[in-house]
Amino acid sequence: MKYLIGIDCGTSATKTILIDSSGKVLAEASADYPLYKPNNGWAEQDPEDWANAAISTVQAVVKKSGVAGEDVAGIGISGQMHGLVMLDKGGNVLAPSIIWCDQRSHEQVYEMERLMPYEKWLEITANPPMAAWTAAKYLWVRDNQPEILEKCRHILLPKDYIRYVLTGVFATDVSDASGMQMMDVSHRCWSDEVLKCLGVNESCLGTLYESQEVTGYLLPEIAEKCGLTTGTAVVAGAADNAGAAIGSGIVDDGDAITSLGTSGLIYTHLDEYRPIKDGALHLCCSSVPGCYFTMGGPQAAGLSVEWFKDNFCRGLMEEAKASGRDFYELMTEKVSKVPAGSEHLIYMPYLMGERTPHFEPKMRGAFVGLNAIHRQEHMIRSIYEGLTYLLGDCNDILAETGTHVTKMRVCGGGSKSEVWRQIMADVYDCEIVTLKKEEGPAMGAAILAGVGTGVFPNVRDASKRISEAKDHVYPIRDNVEIYKKYRELFRSLYGHMREDFMALYDL
Q1: How far apart are CA 154 and CA 174, in angstroms?
Q2: C-alpha span between 33 and 55 (Å, rounded)
Q3: What is the predicted pLDDT for the residue at 399?
Q4: Which residues, 6 or more positions from 477, have their beta carbon under 8 angstroms from its beta carbon?
Q5: Nearest to 475 by CA among 406, 404, 414
Q6: Which of 38, 50, 58, 74 could crosslink 233 through cysteines, CB 3.0-4.6 Å?
Q7: CA distance 466 to 464
Q8: What average pLDDT does the segment 27-36 reach?
Q9: Which residues of 351-390 are buried (b: 16+ CB within 10 A; e: fewer)?
Q10: Per-residue confidence band for 357, with pLDDT thresholds at 50, 70 and 90
Q11: CA 134 to CA 465: how far, in whole Å?
Q12: Position 405 pLDDT exceeds 90
């Protein structure tokens, strides 16, 4: 039997799994690393942390599984999108990576719109210029760290730096590269026009592959260190969300999933390229060859929950510890007693600015309607609700294109909350489905490795066979009607508060 490894380079940790040809997970491991915030709106990580985490977790799953190295056919890698990794001619990291949620490059977004008409950006890259995406980050380095740009010979995304460490190959896949703002997305290739506009030499960019294609093989020293062989192939892999879709069975036209990790989004598979009006949702290449996907949602989903927990839930954390209970189980128990609407409290989920459907890096978070009756559990529920209102707006935009989602799969840490799943069912007004195996992007990466090495026949069939539904949650009609009113007010609040937040940011 042949075995496969999937690596997911996330924002808070790298998770790696080893599966057999039936999709059964034989071993898994994870390794955490820090996120640095040196200034307001900035977010950085050290690429060496990603590489070390990938190697250590591969070592761990090979050892735990007891599988012989020569029987591991391939490795797939998924990872957080948009991060800028710059290397010199010797392949050395020149600076910390400016990652996806960093918002420092908003001035460069304005420059991009001056360099080329907004409509042209949509026509070529399928998306409007955004501070969160790689192109604007590159221009920020040009304007603020020219000494780094002068030495730069390679521009990579986070997962592709791991590939380089494993194989010595500079490559990327179409799903991840779609989020760099440098591709002709409809034609699945680098755009000469955009690269010229940005001043980027194509030789600095990795070779583009479809997600299941083999890009290289393990270097001898890496193979030896990991207990594998130089015959272990490394496929192109996928952006984290595209990988999660493959791991969750989202491979047919109109299939959709809500992912609730550090950020949150709704991902919908499209069998063909369909432009989104005004670029209100991200549109990227799918990891199913020739297909596409839309995604949109808040920058700070799980991040909002963790921020509140770390800063305002010390008492609840101590209560959970003293009682020997899981913190989130205790929190869910308390939140479940709060009615829909959190008794007139609304959370504006813009802790890290926003990307979709509002492209505004200067927006910030807020609780609106605070009253003396509100307690900790009201604020937590309002966080769940505010994030879901924003996700629901993305779903509505998709419906305007003719894609109506009637069943939504969910994954990510936030989906483990029964309360949050019910809120999603009520706000979306559709069935919510959880998965039996929720390995997310790591599973998708492993499936892609299996297709690339001939273990599986194709991406679509393997994804459907391995992903299975578990629990189903259905809308509560009274709550559906309540949330319609709250969502209307939520949208209105954004319009009223936007200019005030712009002024606050500029103080």
Answers
A1: 17
A2: 14
A3: 81
A4: none
A5: 406
A6: 74
A7: 6
A8: 97
A9: bbbbbbbbbbbbbbbbbbbeeeebeebbbbbbbbbbbbbb
A10: confident
A11: 34
A12: no
Pair 8, 39: CB distance under 8 Å:
no
Q: What is the DSSP letter of 413?
A: G
Tell me whether residue 148 is exposed, middle or buried, using C-beta atoms within 10 angstroms of its C-beta: 0 to 12, 13 to 18, 19 or more: middle
Gap between the Cα atoms of 141 and 135, Å rounded: 10
Instruction: Return the DSSP state at 195.
Output: H
Torsion 194-198-203-208 (CA) sign: negative
| Structure-token pair, residue 219 | 């270097």
- Classify 143 as helix, strand or coil: helix
Six-digit token pair at 16?
A: 């790696």
Strand partners, 29: 16
Q: What is the DSSP string of 214-252?
A: EEEE--HHHHHHHT--TT-EEE--EEHHHHHHHHTT--S
Side chain identity at residue 472, one-letter code: H
Nearest to 345 by CA among 376, 382, 308, 375: 382
Q: What is the DSSP letter of 353?
A: B
Catalytic residue among 49, 160, 176, 240: 240
Whether the predicted pLDDT of 220 surpasses 90: yes
Only one residue has tokens 């977790």, namely: 57
Tokens for 230, please give them: 């130089």
Angstrom CA distances, 193 to 133, 170, 201, stand at: 18, 22, 11
Q: Which of 325-329, 360-364, 388-392 has the lowest mean pLDDT?
A: 360-364
Pairing of strands 207-209, 171-173: parallel
Sign of CA dihedral 240, 241, 243, 244: positive
Q: Is 310 a catalytic residue?
A: no
> What does the pLDDT read at residue 468?
85
Inter-residue contact 445 to 58 (CB < 8 Å): no
Residue with tokens 């942390």: 49
Chain-centroid distance, C-alpha 137: 17
Whether the pLDDT of residue 43 is over 90: the answer is: yes
